[in-house]
Amino acid sequence: MQDRTHLVDDITGHRRMRRNRKADWTRRLVQENRLTVDDLIWPIFIVPGSGIVDPIAAMPGVNRMSIDKAVEAAREAAGLGIPALATFPNIEMELRDETGSNSLEANNLINQATAAIKKAVPNIGVITDVALDPFTSHGHDGILRGGEIVNDETVDQVARAAVMQADAGADIIAPSEMMDGRIGAIRLALDAAGHQNVGIMSYATKFASAFYGPYREAISTGGLLKGDKKTYYIDPANGTEAIRDAALDVEEGADMLMVKPGLPYLDICWRMKEAFGLPTFAYQVSGEYTQIKAAAMNGWIDGERAMLETLLSFKRAGCDGILTYFAIEVAKILAKR
Ligand code: PBG
């Protein structure tokens, strides 16, 4: 009578996937994707004042920092080898208005932060967003007129804001407001101002997502937002439309592309990388971070393993890097390996 092993071999023809999984050394040898510190971009939140490190309730472990503290954080990040920061301002409510006019103040909070970070830590990249939501009294990413987020006027304004951000020292402009034609307009404006070396990382496919909730608390736009952003962000149901949208950004001169949120859109990461071959990044957004943190804090999952698994998944999906609030935490873990 045949034993069970022979029955299995008859079926598999002696092919056994488990041979390569049998020991730590074989697993290391055949590992296809690796996460390194070079893959990380750290998003941080800036507030006015000094000496401030203000915890964000909906994002345990993440703080809003005044510029002096952000400079210290940038120094720590650079010391760990993190290539770049992405900065977001939480400005005073009195400064927010219908058109987001503070975005056009050369010396506004975000530009001051860029200048201070680049002066103290010149070797870390600074990536700035040009969407208007931190500056508007209604929390939308563009100018609101007659119940509509007006496209062309917003593009005009974000292009001018981009030049000011570059003047302040921003290395990469990352427009997240999803207006049509913004990449081309920003490229022209940057070049006209002599900023040929400032890159553009397009938030090429930004979906109308529930996962941005904690971010809106972080920059205090949640309570302000009237309606939703479905007239300018992409419908989560649409993958092909997302690729067509990204194609326009590539044509208009984007240097790098981003997919946002991350984990629910790994298919988009893969399709973007396949379609264009540009450096492609995923934004593991606030709600993705919070899901892992909250479950871990309750003892329901192993937070560290879940964090590393999600970040590695972005690499497997073709991403060159990840914007993640875990950046410092994961950089410390990677340094110990
Ligand atoms: C808006 C913007 C959003 C995020 C960054 N910039 C989305 C939004 O508020 O609609 C989300 C980032 C995150 O959730 O971590 N321009």
TrEMBL record:
Q: Does the keyword Lyase apply?
A: yes
Cellular component (GO) terms are:
cytosol
Q: Which Pfam families match?
A: ALAD (PF00490)
SMART domains tied to this protein:
ALAD (SM01004)
Pathway annotation from the record: Porphyrin-containing compound metabolism; protoporphyrin-IX biosynthesis; coproporphyrinogen-III from 5-aminolevulinate: step 1/4
What's the source species for this entry?
A: Rhizobium pisi
Subunit description: Homooctamer.
Active site (UniProt): 206 (schiff-base intermediate with substrate), 260 (schiff-base intermediate with substrate)
**What's the protein name?**
Delta-aminolevulinic acid dehydratase
Instruction: Kindly state which keywords UniProt assigns to this record, in alphabetical order.
Output: Heme biosynthesis, Lyase, Porphyrin biosynthesis
The record's top EC class is lyase
The record's section on NCBIfam families has:
PRK09283.1
Can you state which reaction this protein catalyses?
Answer: 2 5-aminolevulinate = porphobilinogen + 2 H2O + H(+)
Q: Which family does it belong to?
A: Belongs to the ALAD family.
Q: What EC number(s) does the entry state?
A: 4.2.1.24
The transmembrane residues are: none
Q: Which GO terms describe its biological process?
A: protoporphyrinogen IX biosynthetic process
- Entry's PANTHER family? DELTA-AMINOLEVULINIC ACID DEHYDRATASE
Task: State the superkingdom.
Answer: Bacteria
**Record-level Gene Ontology MF annotations:** porphobilinogen synthase activity; zinc ion binding
